[in-house]
Amino acid sequence: MARRVKKAPSVCTDLPLDTADVCAKLHLLRQLLGSCFGPTGRLKQVHNNIGGHVVTTSTSSVLLPAISSSQPFVNMIKTSILNHVSRFSDCGLFAAVFCLALIERAKRSALRESVAVKVNRHLLGLCTRYLQREDCGCKVKLDFCSIHNLITLARSVISSKPACVLTESETLHLSKLAVQAFLLTVPCDNPGTVSLGKTVTVPVEGHSVLHSAVFPGLLLGITDVFCLSKVDNLNSAPLIMVLFSASLAGDLCELGDGTIEVHPGADTDSQILDQLLELGKQAVKDEVKLFVCQKVIHPVLQQYLKSHGVVVIERLGISLMDPLIELTGAQPVATLHTTIPAKAYGKVRGLSIRQFGSNTMLHLHPYAESAICTMILCHRNETMLSELKVVCQKTEHVLRLTLREPFALLGGGCTETHLAAYIRHESMNEVTEIASALGCSQTEYLIGVEGFCCSLESVVTALEHNNGNSLVDLTHAHHWTLSADVMKEQMEDSFAFCGCGLVQTSSSKKWTYINTKYTEFAPAPLSRDTILQPCVLDSFTAKLNAFQVAVETANLALDVRYIIQDVN
Amino acid sequence: MGSSVINQRQHVGLQKLSALAGITHSSLGPNKKYKFIQDDTSGESALVCSCFRIFENLELTCAVGQLVYETVQAHQKVYHTGSGCLLFLAGAWSRAALECLQKGISVSHIISAMSEGMDICLDVCRKFSFSTEGLGGTQSESCIATSHGLGLLPSKKPPHLQGATNVHHKTLNTSGQRKLKLSRHFCEAKSENVSTAQPPPQPKHPDIAHIAEGLSHGCMDAMNLVRKASSMQSKTQDTGSSSFDVTKVVTCVLPGLPGESADVVPGCIVLLSADQASVAHHLKEQPLKVALITGDLSDTYCHLGFSRPKGMQHVSDPLALLSSSKEEKWLIKVVMILLNLEVNLILVSGLANEKVIQCCCKHHILVVDKVKASVLEPFANATGAVPVTYPTQLSKHCVGTGVKAVIWRDLSSHERKYCTAVHISTGGNSGLVTVIITSCVQGKLQALEDQFWACAYRLHHALKDKALLPGAGVTEMLCIHHLQTQAEHHVKHSIEKSGDVLKTRTAANHHRGVVLQLMADGLIDYVSTVMVNTGRISKIKARTIVNQQLQDYSGHVGIAAKFSQLFLEEEKEDTVVALSVKSNEAPAVKIYDNLSVKQEVWRKALDVVFLVLQTDAEVITGVAQKSENLMLL
């Protein structure tokens, strides 16, 4: 009999947020994620206890999957944030820090959980409505006629991850490349339904970042140098290519398990090889110039094709199949026991060779208008390169989101401080009606509002990692940073900008430290005729969703009454 | 799962980095010291001499160690030289960062100031680099052979340094004005040297012998091998210019022979058994036809990606049991093909079956297996052979001609099966050269091979960059000077302005000055460590000399010459002992450094420091129970 252990009863914890253990873990998680937040954030090294590969990162999409807690509470919050990140790519850390701050504040204020939940929900609605208004003070409409805002948006995302160790010029170069790649994936004149293309990223280690480049079309790695000499003269007319998804290695891989009886004198290998050579003969007859297979090609077939001047690429891999199909219009042939139908052939405009260090790549130029492009990403070392790859994919996603909603929010903490000031001001109106609608007392409502705003402001202070001070100006409610050895009174005389770069110091402004109480004021809109452009932008869609996810997750956490855990 | 949070002021990560770098101090510079690394559990030991090999043999358990190893390995794979410098500077600059943290400078300021420092250093490298063209003047082959016939003028100021003084006044361009200056010297050289001169207006081909000497950095023997390889390749290229193709150089390590047998031969050297050797003997003096096989030479070999289904059963004919097996049939078929095509020699990149080798030997066909791809390719190009995967693919188009096989040396010993070294070449037009590295001490072989590759790649990079830097610490001294100047400028600037303008700016400037000064100290540390490694100076004396030189420098333009001379005097004494060929009147040997390698090494060292500086915690997965110093999530 199999060894059986008596089933232990499940463990039930009630009011988990009251237990010190859970609170300590949540606090630790908040410190961990808060310390990674922003362009001056700190990095974390993630590795297994036994040893093995070390990943140095500050991105939530890499950090969060590595964290698995014994507390299901923590896991629930983590899963919720990961869900947001998988859908929107950006603002993961923001959502996590905001959510954890809300939970902590609610506990600390001793507000009843049900009241806190209701107030949070009400304020979320208030913020969302404000952000979606035309005249919202922290929203910027993206002008697609000028590249400037798109580059700023790309630049803000790229520079938010310090593990990439990029200089100013490198950041700018990459931002331009990201926008270029994004524009290449937006098809121009296609009738009918429009779908975005794809950017294939090829990482190359050991070279300077400034060698990164974007190419329309696809770049495929080739290892066989023997066929290279025949490539260069194929740049004139459109070339025919064929794509196989079946294995052309000459083996019987599809047959699976079970016994096969082979009669004497029958040679399966040579029969399959004959079939392969038939395919090759047909390809040569049909003037195919590029022969691509997702899997392995038999060396005899390769030799035959090469001797007839055909460029052969094998082992393409599944991830490149879709982009290649879209680029060339080819239909992959799934079996070798057939003649290749004419409509399976695809077309490329030309082929050329590109060299990146020791990597040799074949560049397929698109024949028709195509939305596929390839980005070659270079960096000096593997750690920085893998972080850079994640960041570039994030940037691509953020740029695509602008097609859905062509807005951006001011970055650098200005949106959060602006919202906090707005909420404080708005909640002064109609306190009694709202309180009775929510079923709580006015004091409770005001405590809930204060908690919400302080949570927003704590996200802003998490941006500062160098012992500086955070300030809010009392006119536009933007965020300002001061280094530790400067007094706030000297702000008026200095020449500085707020976090997003839109507001400049002047003698008429007043500031206060961010955690101090200030009399409510309506944040003034910025003058329309300013020539200043924001220099830090956040994605509107991603941030708005991050907001919602954070508040809803915090509400869910505050609502949890019991945790029932199965022990074995 | 657990994670630990580190106190910022102490920054354990940076301390670890500095400690790791301390391991390799003695393998810096031209005087490297050997180390034994012993494994306590298994008793194995390794004799290592370079930073890279030290790291390879250590088992590092910390995350910082992993990051450093990965960086060093990636650098070594591409550049093959400079890892010691990388690690040292990473350690020195991490100490600088630690000091800055203790002084209360914030991480962002440290990073931006150090980036500025790096820009200054890279700029200095660019400005003070000089072209490889026209260095050293023309020389004949006989001059190369003698140890001090370097083509240098027996004049007071060697040409390249005179050019360097011009650099201070004009920006350097590696063509145009510089060339004019040098070609004048050139004419002087021509009148004094007996050697045949080339007409000056032509674009100068780099003088490889001279550059190689300057880049040898203490490994004269290894660099001599490189020079021989290069001249051998130049002869085959037939273009009259000297060139060096490092991708066509292969090393062959032969233990047991004394070091002086090290040599360079065109083509390749393979170790064969007695039977094969007798075939080779039989084939000597004949022009051979060659077939190239990628993959194994056996009946059961299948190319990569081919998988045999496991459930195949062959129904056998009762009569079939009497006839020969599948393997024999295959063997007969292959031998028939080879005999028909008159192939005498087969080079296989994989393994060859024993039976196949013996069968071929009977028919006087020489089979050589485990041939590297870097050998197969030049053979293919030079002989016209086309490499195939299966011997059944061979046709007359795939067979190449013009190969020679000769027995090079008989290394028989009773314990070794493969004891005859056979030399296979294509008549000298493939560009492929094999460098034979030998030593009586088996443990030293890897170090000797590494030194050879380091020298070879230094030459390769010099020719690729078409530029060189002044060596022997001159470039570092120039960087230190510039860094210190800029540091003083920042501090002065901050003091002037502290009155009226916002204090942040001035504080930041003052901090920048401190950081730049500490970076310069790191470089001073590097230079003095290299000097200490010569074994003749103490650390304090070295630092004193360096500081003295720096003080003398300001404004005085000819310091570069002086500093270089200082080093060289010590070197000369060294080489007098070692080679005992140089006379006292020999002009000073010019020492060079690679431009791209140095820039890369400095940049990578700073990358590692930045990554470790900004890391403040480790997230360790898979931790089951609580342990001290860890906070559990």
Automatic annotation (TrEMBL), chain A:
Task: Name its GO BP terms in alphabetical order.
Answer: camera-type eye development; chaperone-mediated protein complex assembly; cilium assembly; convergent extension involved in gastrulation; heart looping; inner ear development; Kupffer's vesicle development; melanosome transport
Question: Which top-level group of life is the source organism from?
Answer: Eukaryota
Extract one GO molecular function annotation from the record.
ATP binding
Q: Where are the transmembrane segments?
A: none
- Supply the Pfam families for this chain: Cpn60_TCP1 (PF00118)
GO terms under cellular component: cytoplasm; kinociliary basal body; nucleus
InterPro entries linked to this entry: Cpn60/GroEL/TCP-1, GroEL-like_apical_dom_sf, GROEL-like_equatorial_sf, MKKS, TCP-1-like_intermed_sf
What is the protein name stated in its UniProt record?
A: MKKS centrosomal shuttling protein
Organism name: Mastacembelus armatus
Automatic annotation (TrEMBL), chain B:
Under the heading SUPFAM superfamilies, the entry gives: GroEL apical domain-like, GroEL equatorial domain-like
Q: What residue ranges carry the coiled-coil annotation?
A: none
Q: Which GO terms describe its molecular function?
A: ATP binding
Q: GO annotations under biological process?
A: chaperone-mediated protein complex assembly; convergent extension involved in gastrulation; photoreceptor cell maintenance
- Pfam families (UniProt xref): Cpn60_TCP1
Protein name, entry field? Bardet-Biedl syndrome 12
Provide the species name: Mastacembelus armatus (zig-zag eel)
The organism's taxonomy opens as:
Eukaryota, Metazoa, Chordata, Craniata, Vertebrata
